[in-house]
Amino acid sequence: MKKMRFFAVGALLAVMLASCAFHSSKHSFGPYSDAETFYTKGNYPKAIERYQEYLDGNPQGNLAAIARYYIAKSYAISGNAAKARENFEQVVKQYPQTSWADFAKEQLEMLQGAAKA
């Protein structure tokens, strides 16, 4: 009986792992995934566009705070401090109890310091 249970658990584990391996390369969050790719490659205008597309379709989505934060970061990196500030402020206002709001506050302080310099 123990051998049978061991075999059943092993077979189930093998099926689960094979399933994960098969689907992992196709897993995507659509515009959000595209935005991440553009951001990491330094194509900030396209990243902003795709993050915004994600937000337009998922305004209350699980990744909304992160998308808004990276829109702001993309503007900051691109040299548009006004748009960066506006988007960081939205993160703080819309998602006040998240770590993304804390990160946005830090970025706002950095932008404030850069403006004074």
Tell me what you see in this structure.
- The protein has one domain (about 30-115): Serine Threonine Protein Phosphatase 5, Tetratricopeptide repeat (Alpha Horseshoe), CATH 1.25.40.
- It is built from six helices and no strands.
- The protein has helices spanning about 1-25, 30-40, 45-55, 65-75, 80-95, 100-115.
- Helix 3 runs antiparallel to helix 4 and helix 4 packs parallel to helix 6.
- The protein is globular and about 40 Å long.
- Mean pLDDT is about 85; it is low at about 5-15 and about 15-25.
SSE inventory with pairings:
Layout: H1 2-24, H2 31-40, H3 44-57, H4 64-77, H5 81-94, H6 99-116
Helix pairs in contact: 2-3, 3-4, 4-5, 4-6, 5-6
Provide tags for this entry.
Serine Threonine Protein Phosphatase 5, Tetratricopeptide repeat, mainly alpha, 6 helices, 117 residues
- Overall form: globular
Contiguous runs where pLDDT drops below 50 for at least 5 residues: 6-13, 17-26
What's the CATH C level? Mainly Alpha
**CATH architecture title:** Alpha Horseshoe
Helix amount: over 70%
Biggest sheet layout: none
- What is the mean pLDDT? 84
Please provide the count of β strands: 0
What amount of the residues lies in strands? under 5%
> How large, in whole angstroms, is the Cα Rg?
20 Å
User: At the fourth CATH level, what is the homologous superfamily?
Assistant: Tetratricopeptide repeat domain
Number of structurally distinct domains: 1
